[in-house]
């Protein structure tokens, strides 16, 4: 079983899919040609027999230092051996419209012998491919085929060795050896070879041009830039859908059952990722994502789902793969996600908030986009009183979660703002009345007077980290006594370990319908950072932010959770929610320190039916 840490991985991608590269030079996860395609390499969820591509020196004592080239997803690893130094450059060409992985070895000093081991296993390691050699000694090609997919490997000749293929070569100072792997449909001929120098130049230029738009300031600017790059890498280049992570079934509780497939587009996560991009000036991405949304949820608003496939697919049936033992023996390995059938009322608020942000950025509404929003609000009007499964996709009974109720409030609030501020047409008096009804309900049932705190849902005295979002959506100012009391309860119940990282909720209540426990959830800790910064506790914000940024791996990646006992990353990676909340927290701190960062959205804070605007509620790009 895989024993390398989740934090040992770096991501390379082309905005259509991605591959994970370990520190030791092994690609142990790649799904080609799309994020949610069946895997080609799946050693991450098992061992080498489940598919991998290793490239490293033959010297067992070799050491490696790696980094991304500035403002790109081009990964460079420098290997030092007893006989010399070599550099490996790895990337997936952007703009080539083919799923290709490039691995370039360059000799820097002395002589270094490099070995490649290739074990292609299609369809989550359930399909052993037919392998054949074509080409000649000057241009060797290795073809792997199984079912609908084929792979062509070029650049160096491999030889068969016990159901795998190997190649060994030595590089001297100045030598360059390239190897490429390209997926293509098996009913077609192999595509023509790419010009690797041109592809490297184009890919580097593309990433840097994209990053040139980003406005980041303050002590966490570099972490924010890396997070923005990773968010863009997980935004599909054609459809605009933002996947929640590049992996499936990396466990929240190693050895347990909390293993989920995150290679899909959650409306919530995609909306929040969009907000982070909007906050840094990415107008094209806002328009692109809105187009994805219009296509995905077109039709009857009653059919709106919490999540979709990358192109807007509605059916995401969850199944278990018995042939894969799972990361750290964590079974089951799941493909698909049964949560697509859940009702989560909060997504309406998140979507409408993100579209409101896009309006403020200058993305013009058209007849279709505003008609869609009116239809969504019409559906919320009819169903706003219904319980739901909540932001954490509880597999227990539906409840009236306070966070979800606040997001329903936000949905009506953004509808009111669209009419009052942008002149769009809609039943503003009705929306305003419903907004105030939702607020009255939350204050009556979602408020725990004894603890002076908002509660997780109406039938419990437990708190939930999602309550930290309330100031971000403008429901309550960060410095309001109600919010400060909620923060105190969260600090008491949900902060854990010497670093004080934040749990989502207390699993000991058994309410989520699952066995086992989980580790601190990084997004929740970043929410607390943002709350601290917005309420004047800037030193506390920076102290916790330093801890969180310190948990990022050597190339700036974060997964879903952290094992505070070991520092290991836990859960699927890289996690979009972790990175987008990092960006928002960094912006909040920079703003508290006086920097002008991000797109500053006015947030409504209401008392009764009077609409007033307060700068205290301004946020850094994250709608709730």
């Amino acid at each position: 079983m895989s024993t390398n840490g989740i934090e040992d991985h770096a991501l390379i991608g082309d905005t259509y899919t991605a591959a994970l590269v370990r520190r030791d030079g092994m690609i142990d996860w790649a799904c080609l040609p799309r994020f949610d395609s069946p895997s080609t390499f799946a050693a991450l969820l098992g061992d080498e027999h489940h598919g991998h591509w290793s490239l490293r020196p033959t010297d067992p004592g070799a050491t490696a230092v790696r980094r991304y080239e500035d403002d790109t997803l081009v990964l460079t690893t420098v290997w030092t051996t007893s006989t010399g130094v070599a550099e490996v450059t790895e990337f997936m060409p952007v703009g080539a419209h083919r799923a290709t992985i490039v691995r370039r070895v360059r000799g820097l000093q002395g002589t270094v012998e490099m070995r490649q081991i290739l074990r292609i296993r299609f369809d989550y390691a359930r399909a052993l491919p037919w392998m054949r050699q074509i080409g000649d000694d000057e241009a060797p090609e290795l073809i792997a085929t199984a079912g609908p997919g084929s792979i062509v490997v070029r650049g160096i000749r491999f030889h068969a060795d016990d159901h795998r293929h190997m190649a060994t070569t030595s590089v001297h100072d100045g030598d360059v050896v390239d190897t490429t792997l390209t997926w293509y449909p098996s009913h077609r001929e192999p595509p023509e070879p790419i010009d690797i120098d041109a592809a490297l130049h184009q890919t580097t230029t593309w990433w840097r041009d994209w990053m040139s738009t980003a406005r980041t300031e303050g002590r966490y600017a570099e972490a924010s830039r890396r997070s923005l790059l990773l968010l863009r890498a997980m935004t599909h280049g054609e459809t605009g859908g933002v996947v929640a992570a590049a992996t499936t079934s990396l466990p929240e509780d190693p050895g347990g059952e909390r293993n989920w497939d995150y290679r899909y587009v959650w409306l919530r996560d995609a909306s929040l990722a969009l907000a982070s991009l909007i906050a840094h000036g990415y107008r094209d991405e806002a328009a692109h994502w809105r187009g994805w949304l219009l296509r995905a949820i077109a039709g009857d608003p009653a059919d709106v789902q919490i999540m979709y496939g990358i192109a807007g697919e509605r059916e995401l049936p969850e199944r278990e793969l018995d042939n894969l033992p799972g990361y750290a023996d964590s079974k089951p390995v799941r493909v698909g996600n049964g949560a697509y059938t859940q009702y989560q009322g909060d997504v309406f608020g998140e979507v409408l908030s993100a579209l409101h942000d896009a309006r403020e950025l200058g993305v013009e509404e058209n007849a279709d986009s505003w008609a869609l929003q009116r239809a969504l609000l019409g559906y919320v009007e009819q169903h706003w009183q219904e319980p739901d499964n909540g932001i954490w996709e509880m597999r227990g009974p539906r409840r009236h979660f306070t966070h979800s109720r606040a997001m329903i409030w936000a949905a009506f609030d953004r509808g009111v703002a669209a009419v009052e501020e942008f002149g769009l047409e809609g039943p503003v008096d009705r929306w305003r009345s419903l907004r105030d009804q939702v607020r009255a309900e939350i204050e009556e049932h979602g408020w725990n007077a004894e603890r002076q705190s908002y509660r997780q849902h109406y039938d419990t005295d437990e708190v939930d980290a999602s309550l930290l979002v309330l100031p971000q959506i403008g429901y309550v100012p960060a410095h309001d006594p109600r919010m400060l009391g909620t923060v105190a309860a969260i600090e008491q119940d949900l902060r854990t370990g010497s670093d004080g990282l934040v749990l989502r909720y207390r699993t000991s209540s058994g309410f989520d319908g699952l066995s086992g426990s989980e580790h601190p959830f990084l997004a929740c800790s970043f929410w607390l950072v943002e709350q601290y910064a917005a309420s004047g506790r800037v030193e506390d914000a920076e102290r916790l932010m330093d801890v969180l940024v310190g948990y990022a791996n050597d190339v700036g990646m974060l997964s879903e959770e952290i094992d505070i006992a070991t520092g290991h990353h836990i859960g699927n990676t890289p996690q979009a929610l972790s990175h987008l909340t990092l960006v928002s927290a960094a912006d909040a701190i920079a703003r508290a320190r006086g920097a002008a960062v991000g797109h500053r959205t006015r947030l409504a804070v209401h008392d009764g039916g009077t609409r007033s605007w307060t700068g205290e509620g301004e946020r850094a790009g994250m709608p709730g």
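Confidence is low (pLDDT under 50) at residues 599-624. DSSP finds 13 helices and 27 strands in the chain.
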